[in-house]
């Protein structure tokens, strides 16, 4: 009787352990995760994602396969890429921007979706609340709207005489207009006049920087989009030619030659997104997994660019930097 009771308890335990344990008991079982991102699979964000998967015991090629889909500079591709991942029958979709989340949400209401960047997922209609998402979407926010004023302040520290700045964005990703408005509001507090300039395609980049130069802009806050990320090296070159200090939304830009970036740490956000994936594959429901905020922010300064611009970065700012690119 005792042996039978032990056997039944063990059996019930296995059944309650959920899909993770079930998968572990199926030789050769490989979970499929689809990723929608602005950058390719060989990137710092992807490195963070793989690190998070390893923390969860998920190793690519052993028990998980990653179908990484890059927008390749065109966020308009997300709907087709999301539909493709649904057709492939992935177990989870990881969406690296609000546009990617929206595309995945339209493509499926049943496959779990983990968002990596969504500044206000409630306002965007992705979740009912941060504490109780309520459907098939959960993940992380990046607090992007809250950082606009901080970036303008950092520009002022580098260029104390700055009175006229620009915010540069891509209106094809319409939700980013919220960040532009935040920047306009913050500009009054920081004490700069803000000019809003846009680029819908790579061909618009040169004209936008020519306008900044013509209008006496002394510094630029570069927003993000799939197109702008894909053209980050060109943006850095144009800013240097125009003698304009830039502050950007990701260290991806700074590593490509822009002056500074201040944002939630993208490596850490993708790492934490992978932890959500692990929880979901273990049986957790997205509807009950609270949306989390970033815990790590990074200030990255490209000292080589500063020297090329003839700028002296204040020692106090260098001391606060998380990374200084020489």
Model description:
The protein is of the alpha/beta class and 326 residues long. The protein folds into 2 domains: 29-142 and 266-296, Response regulator (Rossmann fold); 144-264 and 298-325, Rossmann fold. The chain contains 14 helices and 12 strands. A 7-stranded mixed sheet has the order 7-6-8-9-10-11-12, with helices on both faces. The chain has a 5-stranded parallel sheet with strand order 2-1-3-4-5, with helices on both faces. Helix 11 links the parallel strand 9 (246-248) and strand 10 (260-264). Helix 3 (44-55) packs parallel to helix 12 (266-281), helix 4 (78-88) packs across helix 5 and helix 6 packs across helix 7. The longest helix has 16 residues, at 266-281.
Please render the helix and strand layout as text.
Layout: H1 2-16, H2 18-24, E1 31-37, H3 44-55, E2 64-70, H4 78-88, E3 92-95, H5 98-107, E4 113-115, E5 137-139, H6 148-158, E6 164-169, H7 177-190, E7 193-198, H8 205-214, E8 219-222, H9 226-230, H10 232-241, E9 246-248, H11 251-255, E10 260-264, H12 266-281, E11 297-302, H13 303-309, H14 315-320, E12 323-325
Helix pairs in contact: 3-12, 4-5, 6-7
